[in-house]
């Protein structure tokens, strides 16, 4: 494959970049997509990104992330999500040497994490490019800012803890974002970061299905122009490299998720059956450590 005109890897600086396919384009995004985009992969750190860099206006991004971004889910799944959030915040407190005081959720969405942080009497801040908070997350004690992390321009060493779930895969420049997160975090402060795992078994099987169904030109990795708009993608190697490069030490790493996806949907609906059929695949992925998500708790260290 030709790698001469491709840029260097924004994570490790490596120049062994390969094109792995064309991105899929949804009808909603079709009006904005004019360039000839490719999904590419760094062979050194296994980071995935779109080339050339996507150039959408702020209004176009906002249009893509409207209310419909948050789908309906079952009560069981909502309860599970809530339990997961509680456990994550418990872990963050465990790994922080002091009591958490100032807390920020980057990409707070509907605001469930903000509600949980407030319940713990943490000084709670939420940030998102559009305000999709449910009513109870609009509590006056929560400071909400609309915009990105750079527009918020928080002071240096401000937060004890920053939570960033399903956000980093949506940004064009992850190193710049993580550097900004580090700047506003106190020394020893902790960051929760969760992203999809590009190195999952589900992607391997999907790739095989694409080849068999004559869609081999399309990439199974990233969804830059289709909900949920993942424009970059991580593996254990590339996430570790990105955190290391920006002055974080990983204190906890997990590969998780997949086996309960079928319980997200109402019984006997089409997605329910589809995800139930995929259950054996998710179970096989457990011992192979190729499950669909990865997350880390990382501590700010001296550079
Ligand atoms: Zn790389």
Give a verbal description of the structure.
- The protein has 303 residues and is α/β, with parallel strands linked by helices.
- The protein has one domain: Rossmann fold, CATH 3.40.50.150.
- A seven-stranded mixed sheet has the order 6-5-4-7-8-11-10, with helices on both faces.
- The longest helix has 21 residues.
- The model has no long low-confidence stretch (mean pLDDT 92).
- The chain binds zinc ion (ZN).
- The site of zinc ion (ZN) has 8 residues, from loops.
Order of helices and strands: EHEEHHEHEEHEHEHEHEHHE
Low-pLDDT regions: none
- Cα-to-Cα separation, first versus last residue: 37 Å
CATH class: Alpha Beta
Assembly of the depicted chains = single chain
Share of residues in helices: 25-40%
Strand content: 15-25%
Number of helices: 10
Bound heterogens, unique: zinc ion
> Which strand order does the major sheet show?
6-5-4-7-8-11-10
Question: Biggest β-sheet, characterized?
Answer: 7 strands, mixed
Tell me the number of structural domains.
1
**CATH architecture title:** 3-Layer(aba) Sandwich
CA radius of gyration: 19 Å
CATH level 4 superfamily: Vaccinia Virus protein VP39
Rounded mean pLDDT score: 92
Tally of extended strands?
11
The assigned structural class equals alpha/beta
Question: What would the CATH topology be?
Answer: Rossmann fold
User: Which of globular, elongated, flat, extended, rod-shaped describes the shape?
Assistant: globular
């Amino acid at each position: 494959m030709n790698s001469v005109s491709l840029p260097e890897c924004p994570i490790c600086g490596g120049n062994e970049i390969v094109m792995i396919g064309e991105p899929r384009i949804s009808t909603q995004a079709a009006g904005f997509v004019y360039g000839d985009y490719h999904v590419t992969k760094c062979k050194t750190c296994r980071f995935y990104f779109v080339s050339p860099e996507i150039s959408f206006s702020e209004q176009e991004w906002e249009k893509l992330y409207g209310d419909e971004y948050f789908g309906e889910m079952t009560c069981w799944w909502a309860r599970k999500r809530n339990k997961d959030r509680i456990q994550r915040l418990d872990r963050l407190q465990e790994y922080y040497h002091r009591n958490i005081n100032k807390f920020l959720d980057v990409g707070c969405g509907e605001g469930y994490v903000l509600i949980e942080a407030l319940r713990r009497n943490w000084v709670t801040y939420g940030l998102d490019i559009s305000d999709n908070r449910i009513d109870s997350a609009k509590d006056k004690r929560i400071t909400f800012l609309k915009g990105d992390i750079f527009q918020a321009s928080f002071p240096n060493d401000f937060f004890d803890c920053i939570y960033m779930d399903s956000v980093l895969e949506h940004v064009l420049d992850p190193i710049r974002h993580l550097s900004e997160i580090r700047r506003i975090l106190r020394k020893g402060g902790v960051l929760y970061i969760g992203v999809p795992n590009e190195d999952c078994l589900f992607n391997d099987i999907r790739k095989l299905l694409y080849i068999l169904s004559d869609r081999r030109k399309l990439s199974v990795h990233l969804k830059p122009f289709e909900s949920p708009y993942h424009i970059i993608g991580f593996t254990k190697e590339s996430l570790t490299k990105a955190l290391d490069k920006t002055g974080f030490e990983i204190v906890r790493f997990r590969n998780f998720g997949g086996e309960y996806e079928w319980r997200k949907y109402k019984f006997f609906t089409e997605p329910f059956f589809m995800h139930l059929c995929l259950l054996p695949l998710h179970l096989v992925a457990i011992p192979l450590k190729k499950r669909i998500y990865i997350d880390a708790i990382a501590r700010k260290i001296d550079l």
